[in-house]
Amino acid sequence: MDKEKVFKIWTHATKEKIEVWRQNLIHNGVKSNLDFTLDSLQWVEEYLLKNYTIDCLKDQSYYQELDRIVSYIGETIKKLMTNSTWKIFLDDSSNLYYGLPTILTKYSGAISPHFLIREILTLKTNDVLITRIQKAQSYEKLIYDQLKKNKL
Amino acid sequence: MRKIKFFLRASLRWYFIIVAFSINAQTGNLDGLLGNFTGYDFNTNAVDQVNASKDSLAIFNQDVFYCLSYLHVNSYQGGVLQDLDNAINAIPSPSSGQNILFYYHFASIDRPEVYIRIQNNDLQDDQIIFLQTYLKEELLNKVNNNLESVLSATSFAQLLYFDYLKNPNLSFVYLEGDNSKSNQSVFNDNYELCAPFNVISLSGIPIQLEKGDKVNFAPAGKRCMCNGVPLGNFTGMAISFRKGGKYYRATCNESDLGFVFGYQEVEESDGAIERISIENNISFTGTGDVLLGFEQDCYIGTKLVRYSFTESELDNTARLEGPIKVYKTYKSQVTQEYKYVSGIGFYPTLVPIDLQEELDYVLIPCKIINISNQDLAKYIKSGKLTCPYYYKDSDYQYFCINTEFGFLIQMINADGTDEFWLLDKYENTWKLLNNNDSGYLKEIEDMFKTVLEIGIMVGVAYTSFGIGSVGMCIGVAVAGTGAAGTVTGTLITAGLETAFEYGMYTVTGDKDQFYVGVIGVGVGAGVELAADGYKIARKFFRHGSKKPPVPSSALPPGLASQSDEYTNAITFKRAGIIRKNANGKTYFQDFEVAISELKGRIKQSGADISDNDWKLFIQDCKDSESNLFIFIDQDVGKFTTWQILLKQGNLDAVALRRNPINLQKLDDFIKAEGADIAKLRSSFRNTRNPQAWLDLKLTKVELNEAFAGFKNDPPFNHTPWTKNHKSQRWKNYEQGCVNGQNSCLDFESWSNGYDGKIDLVANANKGVDDYYNTLNWSCPIPPCREKIISNITAVLPDGTVISGGRRLDIADISTKRAKEFKEYSSGKVYNSSDIRREVAMDKALLLSNKMNEIEWVFKGCVPSGPLNDALNDAGILVVLLQ
Question: Does the ipTM exceed 0.90?
Answer without folding.
Answer: no
